[in-house]
Amino acid sequence: MSNQSVETVSTSNDKIKIALAVALAVAGVVGFYFLSDKPAVVRAGVLALGLLAAIGMAWTSTPGREFLNFAKESVRETKKVVWPSRKEAMQVTAIVFVFVLLMATFLWITDKVLEYALYDLILGWKK
Fold this sequence. Notes:
The protein is an all-alpha fold and 127 residues long. It folds into two domains: 12-78; 83-127. The chain has four helices and no strands. Helix 1 packs antiparallel against helix 2 (40-59) and helix 2 crosses helix 3. The radius of gyration is 27 Å and the shape is elongated. The model has no long low-confidence stretch (mean pLDDT 88).
């Protein structure tokens, strides 16, 4: 990812475009639910149209283009990740499960000891 520090001044025109993009996305979602009596294809089309219009409007603004560049760089960085093998993933998962089980048992025992000490020994309340 780029380490360059670039300051951009957002104009009111860009703010209006972003607000309009949010409004278009909301309109697509509202249209999807408003047309509940229509076929699913029509509803999905209205939703997709609203979201695509929102993306198009956001893309015309400076923050929208910066976000698109950020998303592209994020995908590029994700491709550099070395994923564990299935065996490694299973081993780490097993270790996590064992640790959680041990911690749950420890906390349960601690709770019961404190409960006994507080209610039976200190306060004298018997259950």
